[in-house]
Design a protein that fits this description.
Layout lengths: L19 H13 L10 H13 L31 E2 L3 E2 L9 H11 L6 H14 L3 H7 L3 H7 L22 H20 L1
Helix pairs in contact: 2-7, 3-4
Length: 196
């Protein structure tokens, strides 16, 4: 699948596929100019994001409540900024949001993308930034979600299976086949919603 262009082509011209790194550079300029998104979100990318949420146990039936989840399952109220609440359970973590961003990871993404808040759109953009930073966005756009993509993202999200099937961080993981099934079902939902 070709990458989605960030800017519509001039009338009569065909859109060109733009590598993810160039998209990111163009996106940073777009954000600085007041545009709302850095990374285009295709049905495939939305299904990937939803699959990460499913793995991170922030899916919450697909509702926006998942964007307010603290590590351990608690909730926080304000989406103005990362809550930076440290929770001590089996592990100790300040991860928060739909993609369980650690505060330092969030600050980097927020700064690089110029994100205004910790709202759902900002979290989605930051998650795609992390996928791109891991060098997997182009691969995912070409191949879709498979065990190779999951393994490369396992260093970013502890709930995704590494190539050996376990967590890169020794934490519980979802199985690759379970995640691929979720992705395919969600992609079908995204495509059907786009046709409605």
């Amino acid at each position: 699948m070709p990458l989605l262009p960030l800017v519509a082509p001039a009338p009569g011209r065909q859109p060109e596929a733009v590598p993810a790194v160039q998209q990111h550079q163009a996106a940073a300029a777009a954000l600085a100019g007041g545009q709302a998104t850095a990374y285009a979100i295709s049905p495939e990318r939305r299904a990937l994001l939803n699959t990460i949420r499913f793995a991170e146990v922030t899916w919450v039936g697909g509702s926006h409540d998942g964007y307010r989840v603290l590590y351990g399952g608690g909730r926080f109220a304000s989406l103005a900024r990362h809550p930076e609440v440290t929770v001590r359970r089996r592990y100790t973590s300040a991860a928060a949001g739909a993609y369980q961003f650690l505060p330092g990871t969030w600050r980097e993404a927020q700064q690089r993308l110029g994100l205004p808040d910790f709202g759902p759109a900002s979290q989605d953009q930051a998650a795609l930034f992390l996928v791109d930073r891991r060098g997997v966005l182009d691969l995912f756009d070409r191949r879709g979600l498979d065990a190779t993509v999951l393994a490369r993202l396992a260093n970013e999200w502890a709930s995704l299976p590494a190539s050996h099937g376990g967590s890169a961080y020794g934490q519980p993981v979802k199985r690759a086949d379970q995640l691929v099934r979720f992705y395919r079902a969600d992609l079908q939902r995204q495509r059907q919603a786009g046709q409605a």
